[in-house]
Design a protein that fits this description.
This protein is mainly β. It has no helices and 11 strands. The chain is globular, with a radius of gyration of 13 Å.
Length: 125
């Protein structure tokens, strides 16, 4: 099973930027990968995802501000976050799955993914 480890979280002011990384134990090119976030008292929500060919999709609330990408030789997934807002705060998780024909409809559902990292905290004030 693929192991995922996130890093790069922190505490920033509104309008600032952060880049999250997710290092995978094996070939990222084999997986559909996504970023999710969970704010206190709320359900985990899909933020962005990328398929095996590099096609990306985003939640409406983050379009134009967040960018998902991956570096397959480094087995690393990234989330570049610009113009951060207080509503962006939460624990950010990366996830991986072979979604196959369920892409793109299933990308935003946490239940679609078997493999998860431990999460990294993002605070925006």
């Amino acid at each position: 099973d693929v192991q995922l480890v996130e890093s790069g979280g922190g505490s920033v002011q509104a309008g600032e930027s952060l880049t999250l990384s997710c290092n995978a134990s094996e070939y990222t090119e084999r997986y559909y990968m996504g970023w999710f976030r969970q704010a206190p008292g709320k359900e985990r929500e899909g933020v962005a995802a990328i398929d095996t060919d590099g096609m990306t999709t985003y939640a409406y609330s983050v379009k134009g501000r967040l960018t998902i990408s991956k570096d397959n030789p480094k087995n690393t997934l990234y989330l570049q976050m610009n113009s951060l807002k207080p509503l962006d705060r939460g624990i950010y998780y990366c996830a991986a799955e072979d979604l196959g024909s369920r892409w793109p409809e299933a990308w935003k559902y946490a239940s679609s993914y078997r493999y998860w990292g431990q999460g990294t905290q993002v605070t925006v004030s």
